[in-house]
Amino acid sequence: AITLSSFPDEWKVARVMPLYKNGQRSIPGNYRPISVLPAISKIMERILYDQLYNYLTKFEILSDSQFGFRKFHSTASALLDCTNDWYVNLDRKMFNLVVLIDLKKAFDTVDHQILLNKLELYGIKGQALTLLKSYLTNRNQKCQIKNSFSSERLIKCGVPQGSILGPLFFLLYINDLPHCLNKTKPRLFADDTNLTASANSMTDLETAVNSD
Question: Which of 125, 128, 185, 201 could serve as a FRET partner for 116 with CA atoms 20 to 30 Å apart?
Answer without folding.
Answer: 185
